[in-house]
Amino acid sequence: xxxxxxxxxxxxxxxxxxxxxxxxxxxxxxxxxxxxxxxxxxxxxxxxxxxxxxxxxxxxxxxxxxxxxxxxxxxxxxxxxxxxxxxxxxxxxxxxxxxxxxxxxxxxxxxxxxxxxxxxxxxxxxxxxxxxxxxxxxxxxxxxxxxxxxxxxxxxxxxxxxxxxxxxxxxxxxxxxxxxxxxxxxxxxxxxxxxxxxxxxxxxxxxxxxxxxxxxxxxxxxxxxxxxxxxxxxxxxxxxxxxxxxxxxxxxxxxxxxx
Amino acid sequence: xxxxxxxxxxxxxxxxxxxxxxxxxxxxxxxxxxxxxxxxxxxxxxxxxxxxxxxxxxxxxxxxxxxxxxxxxxxxxxxxxxxxxxxxxxxxxxxxxxxxxxxxxxxxxxxxxxxxxxxxxxxxxxxxxxxxxxxxxxxxxxxxxxxxxxxxxxxxxxxxxxxxxxxxxxxxxxxxxxxxxxxxxxxxxxxxxxxxxxxxxxxxxxxxxxxxxxxxxxxxxxxxxxxxxxxxxxxxxxxxxxxxxxxxxxxxxxxxxxxxxxxxxxxxxxxxxxxxxxxxxxxxxxxxxxxxxxxxxxxxxxxxxxxxxxxxxxxxxxxxxxxxxxxxxxxxxxxxxxxxxxxxxxxxxxxxxxxxxxxxxxxxxxxxxxxxxxxxxxxxxxxxxxxxxxxxxxxxxxxxxxxxxxxxxxxxxxxxxxxxxxxxxxxxxxxxxxxxxxxxxxxxxxxxxxxxxxxxxxxxxxxxxxxxxxxxxxxxxxxxxxxxxxxxxxxxxxxx
Lengths: 259, 496
What we know:
By secondary structure, chain A is mostly helical. Chain A is built from 11 helices and 6 strands. In chain A, 59% of the residues lie in helices and 9% in strands. In chain A, the strands form 2 sheets. Chain A has a 3-stranded antiparallel beta sheet, sandwiched between helices. Chain A starts with a helix and ends with a helix. In chain B, a hairpin with a 3-residue loop joins strand 8 (478-480) and strand 9 (484-486). Mean pLDDT of chain B is 80; it is low at 153-157 and 336-372.
């Protein structure tokens, strides 16, 4: 691959701008260069790949995102993870993952369907109810079918203990008796606020905490389309599930043999 | 062959929305009047919408409803009023912020289908969520239809007919009627403007819609659209002719006439804006088609909702909870506070590119494509021949080997900016070493290779070899007098 000095400069400039701003508008000159000049395109993609990152463009924006694994960068999500590291706090991170996933499932829509309902947002209370019913349905599955994903179920129990038993539904503000999700701790609605913070901080959703409403932004839909509406990635994830499953089985067999 | 059930589903949607309005809630003393109050509230919101008044937040809805209850001389109880407002906003428990749903028969599908709707929806533009504003509400299409139906105006009654109707009313001197007809006209244009804006959002987000929604949208050619707008413009002009004739009317309220034409002027400029939007959307569609030929065959039907969540995780769980993390991590951008090891090297160039761009705008012809740079090739070759010798003999060169050099040598490396760029280039992409003629814009690495070979023929045997780079994680970084810091890469010859 050969390129000239100018292309290298443009590519590097775009990459660092992306590192700085994460999402830039497709109408910026550098972003246009990314679309029109295949060398610049390659340079930026390679720089990103080197760092465990990925660049993609939509009709409206150019995004810089992390890869599933091997990213050398922290992001607001991994920062949340490190906050909840340690054996006891881990279940908080699990719970946050479940909340994010349920929220995404609630606002996602199939690519070729043109409905705007999802874009109007999800209420905190609704999301809270969904988390409760999801956790309960997993517990139920475990009761009915003992072979249901064992390690998963153990983790689900830990999370359910936290969510269903230890957390109150919400706490009121000391000032005006309204539900306060930003200045209270240890309750379901305030934890929803915490769990979705990485999305809020990246400008992917609007957290309308006064009205207890979470509103997805177009940038979130662009990422959902790119990341989860893609056959290859779906297959990769399914492979990952299969691999992990057989690894676990193997470990169990080994354990059985050593006993 | 017109069958009795033609359009039944569409009709049922409307009657359902009408019959459910203000129902199914306990608002105490207001119970018998909740439907009336709710409809009155919708009318008030609609009026504010038409007048560009964004006082349509929940608290405004409450105060509007209070005014209605007061006007009706019914007992005012704030709790009941709040419940009523919430009952117009949402179905069931207001905390859930749920849609209204009804199961109604669809004659085309021959089955009963779920119909989801709302009376009031967020007005995205007026809401200023980003600045922390509260949600401003507007009428949903369903609610607008309720208002139109109750004005005995059928849906098919298009924009041009409404214009014509207005014209007739004016000719007859019926300014009061004409004014409400103009309001209707404005509502329609606003509605169409909203649709165009939504469409723009939709195709930018999901270009595939241009094809899948093609039939549904009954796309017309640009010429047809222009023709239609021209016609509509002409009717406006016809109407405005009557503005000068206001004097000729007898027994009419002149003041009313003037107000009427003020409103019409508003309708006309909104109409111009609509024309602009529609035409620019058409060219956007063309541009998207041109730029994204792949949307024809990119027809993934996968979704997070269905495939990742509902059919996989919700049903089966995952072998380990940690896999959720792998699934979610790509959603996030790297954090801002992170410092890329190469950042320093590029920051100056980045600045330079910006300067170049802004200068280019001012003096298009005077700016050179790249700055003239003087290289001390003697020095450069002297430094690099050690690197290439190492490559040739050992097959690899660790950048941090340069850390061992005495400070004076390091100064020499730093003195030529191109050295650092060459490192970058080797790190960023592979290159196959070849001996080629020099030309402007030639990859600097090949230029270096060529000159090295001219100086010392032994390097010629490297021709045809591919040079790659690899991060040697955990090793010491290359650090040249704290001025140039870079991760511990090694460059190496690809094994044959």
